[in-house]
Specification:
- The protein is of the alpha+beta class.
- It has helices spanning 2-19, 40-44, 105-134, 147-164, and strands at residues 24-38, 53-64, 69-82, 85-101.
- Strands 1-4-3-2 form a four-stranded antiparallel beta sheet.
- The protein is globular, with a radius of gyration of 23 Å.
Length: 170
């Protein structure tokens, strides 16, 4: 009799496991969508002394191509300065095509702007390192980016913009 009681529970557990399919994320392709490197110090004949100051700006973008395919772009802007002289400027849009399945719609936006960039970052970092080295400078290894914190920061900025709204208009 005890065997009969456990079988329905096992069947229910099996059905629940089939219904709760885990999310699936797969990189279909990744590529440099746009790249610009301006070696300003060399063009102007400026000799760089000491360690230049490096400023890195990051922006994210995502587009839906089909129900399960998305393009995610990590946009990086890098400015190197030494004694108020620009040494080099680099801008790059690094993109990936992703297959994403079994992610609830209310979780898709953070998934696209946190997990996908996290997967692209090591490859983006390598390109930045190679380009700066090929530009005649020591390879620039960008520090890790906390994409969760960046996502939260962007949400907070959007919320502030909504709250401030169009002031002074009738």
């Amino acid at each position: 009799m005890a065997e009969n009681e456990t079988k329905p529970a096992d069947q229910a557990t099996g059905q629940a496991a089939e219904q709760a399919t885990p999310p699936r994320l797969k990189i279909l392709s990744q590529y440099i969508r746009d790249l610009s490197f301006e070696n300003i110090a060399v063009q102007k004949g400026v000799k760089v002394e000491g360690t230049p100051e490096i400023q890195v700006k990051v922006a994210l973008d995502a587009r839906k191509h089909s129900d399960t395919q998305f393009e995610v772009v990590v946009k990086v802007g890098i400015e190197s300065k030494s004694q108020d002289q620009t040494v080099f400027l680099m801008e790059m849009d690094y993109a990936g095509q992703f297959l994403i399945e079994n992610v609830p719609s209310n979780q898709l936006h953070p998934f696209l702007l946190i997990e996908c960039p996290r997967m692209l970052f090591p490859f983006l970092r390598r390109v930045v390192s190679d380009v700066t080295r090929d530009g005649g400078y020591p390879p620039l290894n960008i520090d890790n980016i906390d994409f969760l914190a960046l996502y939260r920061q962007n949400l907070a900025q959007q919320q502030q913009q909504k709250e401030s709204g169009p002031s002074g208009t009738a």
